[in-house]
Design brief:
Radius of gyration: 15 Å
CATH superfamily: START domain
Order of helices and strands: EHHEEEEEEH
Shape: globular
Strand content: over 45%
Low-confidence stretches: none
Helix content: 25-40%
Number of helices: 3
Strand order of the largest sheet: 1-7-6-5-4-3-2
Distance between the termini: 38 Å
Largest sheet: 7 strands, antiparallel
CATH class: Alpha Beta
Number of strands: 7
Mean pLDDT: 90
Length: about 150
């Protein structure tokens, strides 16, 4: 499983970015392929296990992820996930929100995915790169469109 990293700067605080990324049930409003999100379990008021349903053109793909939150430093917030079950073989990743100024945050998105079937490496890598960039662009638009 090959991990890829993408970054973007968002004109908002790390806390605002973190609030948006942790509002899982709102994902279908700003993620084009996301059809539905179901919170399976929560701890301390935070969703910890979530099932996603994505429109993959020919069929709906579903998978469940377990989340952990690192909120010890308000200027460096991290959301990490690991695979539980679903139509993929494995998916792991994280978002790191590092505030670099009062209203500017550097976002690092790490993703490792194994779809469970053979796809030429170049095709899979281009798909991952495009979907990661689209996700970050959509996150930036969503965060910056909300009132600070």
């Amino acid at each position: 499983m090959h991990q890829q990293t993408r970054t973007i700067e968002i004109n908002a605080s790390a806390n605002k970015c973190f609030q948006v990324i942790c509002d899982f049930q709102a994902y279908p409003q700003w993620q084009r392929t996301m059809k539905k999100v179901e919170v399976v379990s929560q701890e301390n008021g935070r969703p910890t296990v979530i099932t996603y349903f994505l429109d993959a053109v020919l069929k709906t793909i579903s998978y469940t992820l377990r989340y952990t939150y690192d909120e010890n430093d308000a200027k460096n917030l991290k959301l990490k996930w690991s695979y539980v079950r679903g139509d993929l073989k494995n998916i792991q990743g994280s978002y790191l929100f590092a505030e670099i100024a009062g209203n500017k945050t550097h976002v690092t998105f790490d993703l490792a995915i194994d779809i469970g079937m053979w796809v030429p490496g170049i095709v899979l890598n281009r798909f991952k790169e495009a979907s990661m960039q689209e996700t970050l662009d959509n996150l930036k638009r969503r965060v910056e469109s909300l009132k600070q």
